[in-house]
Design brief:
The complex is a heterodimer of chains A (221) and B (192). Chain A is mostly helical and 221 residues long. Chain A contains nine helices and two strands. Chain A has a two-stranded antiparallel ribbon with strand order 1-2. Chain B has a single domain (18-190), classed as Four Helix Bundle (Hemerythrin (Met), subunit A), CATH 1.20.120.80. Classes of the chains: A mainly alpha (221), B mainly alpha (192).
Chain lengths: 221, 192
């Protein structure tokens, strides 16, 4: 059965210890704290390790060319998929389209899932809360910096984000409702699920601050 | 010529033993399966900087230990192949059993790891990162389980000196499972 295998004098032990050495380097890499070093030690070394295994343990080195073509075809198919879809997935905005869900996910960080919610909250609090900059980062993409509902991501939404500068909006709103919506989402008052609740990311006091900030957009009568 | 065994066992119409050709063919399809999954993960990960917060909760040491376990099991698998080439079925079988031991260790560690994570609230629905984490590692773990079962059957044959060519075939598959993990490790554990 070993017709074309007899001649390999691979020192398997040497390959094995090389692999272990590389593993140590890939774990040690991040300790340098330099991103590029981490990337090289993580992914560069993964490629080297995989190649060592494929060539020496799987004996691809000694296989007929047919086999290599077969695998190359698979890799090309993969590359094709990546090339075809990555532009749409890596970007959240393009000509005439906005991926609102993805943008909102990035903005609110990780707030889904209970265990995770705590860490998100801790991070937001730790970063020092400033309602104005937080409104810019979190809310303005939909509601606009001027609170008029013209944020970049908001343009694609249906219903459009509320316009806080519109007197008609304020005719039917009171303080309790605003606080409720910011904390629990517009679904809490029968509105759209696009306006999600933020109670997982912000404390009750911070939500009050958001409500104050939103009320500042209210036009004088 | 008449064959008492399935053609894949002994024939080599392409110049490559047909059994080995079949295993590589399977692996070529696996490349697309795992490649598609990991490629998709990579795209989403690059598009979602906030996933780094979730990834920070994976335990690099557990991942590194399991990498060590799989590399070692690949080593014993290739030694089993070497023994089978010498016609030494007994040694090959023993080495395969050691390899199965590696597979089981890997699975036990993975089970403990997942238990800790799930009880901490990091479930498959927690967010996109954890969905990929459990899907990719889960699909890989299914391959580990399948490999261990097949290795058990082959080891039992090899011990009696039968079907020694299969030791190489399961080895090739097993190294592939190792290679997938070699990429999963930095993707899920190191890049934070």
């Amino acid at each position: 059965m070993s017709e074309n295998h007899e001649s390999h004098h691979v020192n398997y032990k040497k390959i094995y210890f090389t692999l272990l050495g590389l593993l140590v380097v890939s774990v040690a890499g991040p300790f340098a704290g330099i991103l590029i070093v981490t990337l090289i030690t993580a992914f560069g070394i993964a490629i080297v390790k995989a190649n060592l295994v494929i060539q020496n343990f799987m004996h691809l080195k000694w296989e007929k060319r047919l086999m290599k073509w077969m695998l190359t075809t698979s890799l090309l198919l993969m590359a094709l998929m990546f090339a075809g879809t990555s532009v749409d997935i890596l970007n959240h905005e393009g000509r005439n389209w906005v991926n609102v869900a993805a943008m909102a996910a990035v903005e609110r960080g990780i707030e889904d899932g209970e265990g995770v919610a705590e860490t998100a909250e801790v991070e937001v609090v730790a970063a020092g809360f400033n309602v104005e900059s937080m409104f810019t980062v979190v809310c303005a993409t939909c509601h606009g910096q001027a609170g008029d509902g013209t944020g970049a991501a908001g343009a694609a939404l249906d219903p459009r984000p509320a316009n806080f500068t519109d007197p008609v909006f304020w005719e039917t709103r009171d303080r309790a409702r605003i606080v409720n919506v910011i904390a629990n989402g517009a679904t809490a008052v029968g509105g759209s699920a696009l306006m999600v609740g933020w109670s997982a990311s912000f404390t009750a006091e911070q939500i009050e601050e958001f409500a104050d900030y939103v009320e500042e957009f209210r036009p004088e009568q | 010529m008449a064959f008492a065994k399935p053609a894949a066992t002994l024939r080599s119409a392409t110049g490559i033993p047909t059994g080995r050709l079949a295993v590589w063919w399977l692996l070529a399809s696996e490349v697309v399966i795992f490649g598609g999954l990991l490629g998709t993960y990579l795209m989403f990960r690059l598009g979602h900087p906030e996933w780094a917060d979730a990834a920070a909760h994976t335990n690099t040491w557990i991942g590194a230990f399991n990498t060590l376990v799989l590399l070692t099991s690949s080593f014993t698998a290739v030694l089993a192949h070497q023994a089978a080439e010498r016609g030494d079925g007994k040694t090959a079988a023993k080495l395969l059993v050691l390899t199965i031991g590696g597979a089981l260790t890997f699975l036990v560690v993975k089970g403990a790891e997942w238990t800790i994570e799930i009880t901490a609230g990091y479930t498959i629905t927690a967010n996109g990162f954890w969905s990929f984490y459990y899907t990719a590692a889960g699909l890989h773990a299914l391959h580990v389980i399948a490999g261990a079962i097949i290795m058990g059957i082959i080891a039992a044959d090899a011990y009696r000196g039968r079907e020694l060519q299969r030791v190489e075939l399961i080895g090739i598959y097993w190294h592939f499972v190792d290679v997938v993990w070699i990429f999963l490790f930095p993707l899920l554990y190191i890049a934070k």
